[in-house]
Amino acid sequence: KEPPLTQDEEIILREQGGYVGNLRSGWKLGHLYLTNKRLFLFQPAGIIFETPLSNITNVTIEERNFVFRRKNTICISYKQMETGRTSKVWIIMANLETWRKKIYGMALLKIDEETVDRVAAELNGESREILWYLWQKGHATIDELAAVVAAPTHMDILLKIRKIINPTAERIIGSPILAFEKSKIDCETGEKILFSWWLAGRERPGERREETLVDILDEGDHIDVVMELLGVQEEDILLKMGKDKLTISANTLNKKYHEEISLPAEVNTGEFTKKYNNNILEVRLEKLTNCSLKTAGQR
């Protein structure tokens, strides 16, 4: 039995292993999955732990007791979806370092031009050319990379990546900077790219972040705020009122929403209505009138 995956979710790593969320409780065994969206432990009865990659805040190696022996484990610090509080879990599997590098690269590593420049400064000419080409283009097949430096064989490129570029990056930034993907969606074009090398990390030049649609309508005596919240349960929507600012927060498994909206006029923070239907949130805020201003001043 395989776990259900969401749309466009792909399995990156899968291995038998264990998880513990409370050091006073026992280890739970099952299959650990790392996808392009989340980390979770799956048992035949279902998923017993999961966290979106975007909620992971730290990845370290720690020794823990496992079957009467001290063994290295991966400690994952993450923000809970419900409360936003930071929690920890410990996971263990045979290929520990492979998982640590991959989780770190996908969840925490951020590649910007300064990072690339730091790594490139330690490389020789052809390795530097390969890295800067991938920074500019985002991804490339091994044929493309061989053409960039006129390499005689594909093996020359693989050796440069595995023996020079990635070890240099690990020494400088703590993680490989290039990763091979059999299949991955280019966020900029929506195209599925097959059998290519990519810059590791979540950010690339030209990568477009999905923008939340927000409209603010001034209707004279009140203000309507309309916001698109895809895949959110109404009970998970949090509103925080200020006299001239509205903050809207909500979490789903794959996305966190947090919008601070400046309002065109002061509003009565005690009088508002909200409606959520078909992924659209509508909030109506009553403007402060002279009468309400006097009432507020008497409190």
Automatic annotation (TrEMBL):
UniProt superkingdom: Bacteria
Name used for this protein in its record: HSP20 family protein
Origin organism lineage: Bacteria, Bacillati, Actinomycetota, Actinomycetota incertae sedis, Candidatus Hakubellales
